[in-house]
Amino acid sequence: MQNASPDPLRFLRFTMDSLPIGVFTVDANRRVTSFNPQAETITGYSKEEVLGRYCGEVLQGGMCKTQCPLASVIRRRTPLVRLETTIQDRNGKTIPVSLQTAALLDDEGRLLGGVETFQDISYLKSLERDKAAFVSMIAHDMKSSLTIIGGFARRLQKPAARKDGGKSAQYLDIVLNETERLESMIQDFLEFSRLETGRIKLDLRPVPLNEEIERLVTTSQLQAEHLGIRMAFHPDPRLGTVTADAERLRRVFRNLLDNALKFSESGGKVTVTTQDADAFVRVLVADEGVGIEAAKLPRVFVPYFRAHDNSKTRGFGVGLATVKAVVEEHGGHVEVESEPARGSTFTVHLPKAPVAGEVPA
Fold it and tell me: Is there a contact between 266 and 275 (Cβ–Cβ < 8 Å)?
C-alpha cells in the first residue's frame, strides 16, 4: 500500500520551518504573513509577535528607510539576488546579514506579496576584519624587517664598518636575526596554507616525544634567560614513542613555547609537562603570563585572531591556528585554559597509534 501524498501546504510549511536560514513572507502591503524558526532565532522575536506587523518595524534594516529591498521587488516583480545589509534584533543589537528577496506571484501573475531570506554573517564580517588587520600587520612588520636588513647591509658597505671587525659582526648578527624572522614568518604562512587546503601528507614515524620536547625546551632556554623567565620540563618516564610527523610536531611545540615566552613577564616561569594517558599522550605548556580573557578564549585558534593586540607582542594570528590544524591532522586535539594575570595552559592530546588510514614509513 502506497503512502498518501503529503498535503502540499503542510509540506511547504515543514520545508520553510526546517531551513537553516531566516525566512519570512509579507503581503502586498508588506505586512508579515509567516516567520520561520530561524528568523525567530536571529531576531529574537516570536512568530506571534510579528504576524501582521509592517516588516520594517520588525527588522529595522539598514535599507528600510532608503531603498527597502522588499518594496523594490514587489514594485518591479523581479527577484533581488544577494544583498548585504544590517538588521536589528529586539534588543537593538545590529546584525550584519546576507539577504535575498523576491515577489510572490500566483499562476496568473497577480501579486500576492514578497518573500525574504536572510542569514547572520557576523562571523564572516569578523573574519574579514581580522584578515584586514592581518594584512596591515604583516605588511608593516615585513617592511620593518626589510628596512632593518637594508639599513645594516648599507652600513656594512661603508669602509669604516669593514675596518671595524666588531661592528661588522654586530651588524651581520642583526641582519641574520631579521632574515630568520622573515623566513620563520613565511614558513608559518606556507604551512598554514597547506593545512587549510589539505595539501600535506604526514610523514608518520615513531617519535620519542620526551626527547624531542626536551631538545626544544633546551633550545628556548637562551631566549628565556634573556627575558628573565625560568623554564622547567617534567617528563613522564612511562612515555615511550608516538607515531607522528616529527618535523610538524616540532613546529607545534615550538609555536607553543614561543607563545608562552612572548606573553610572560620577567620573573615568571614556563613549565612543560608530558603525561602518559593510555591511548593518548598529553603535553601541557603552562605559563604565568598575562592570560586571556574568557570572552576571547573561544577564538584563540581562529586564523588571524590575536588575543593581545598591542605593539609589545609580535604575531599575526596564524601560530595557534597552525598548532590546532597540525594536531588535528594527527587525530588529536588541543585545549586552552587561561585566566587574566594568572597565565595560560595549552594542552595537546595526541594518539599513540597512527592516524586511521595512514601507515608509518
Answer: no
Q: Where are the alpha helices (DSSP H) in 158-228?
A: 159-163, 165-197, 209-227
What average pLDDT score do residues 148-161 get?
A: 79
Distance set, CA 250 to CA 178, 201, 209 (Å): 21, 16, 10
Residue in the block written with cell 620563520: 184
Per residue in 174-193, pLDDT (tens digit) is 888 778 777 767 776 777 66
d(CA 167, CA 322): 38
The reported pTM is: 0.55
Q: What is the pLDDT of residue 134?
A: 63
| pLDDT for res 3 | 60
Which domains does the chain carry? 8-120 (3.30.450.20), 123-200 (1.10.287.130), 201-361 (3.30.565.10)
pLDDT in tens, 192-235: 667 666 666 788 999 999 999 999 999 888 889 988 999 999 99
**Burial 50-63, CB ≥16 within 10 A → b, else e:** beeeebeebbbbeb
User: In 210-300, where do the E strands start and end?
Assistant: 230-234, 241-244, 269-277, 280-287
**Nearest C-alpha neighbor of 323 from the set 268, 274, 260:** 260
Residue 5 binned pLDDT confidence (cut-offs 50, 70, 90): low
Cα pseudo-dihedral 10, 13, 17, 23, rounded to 10: 180
Residue 150 CB partners (closer than 8 Å, separation 6+): none
Q: What is the strand order of the sheet 80-88 is part of?
A: 32-35, 22-27, 111-120, 94-105, 80-88
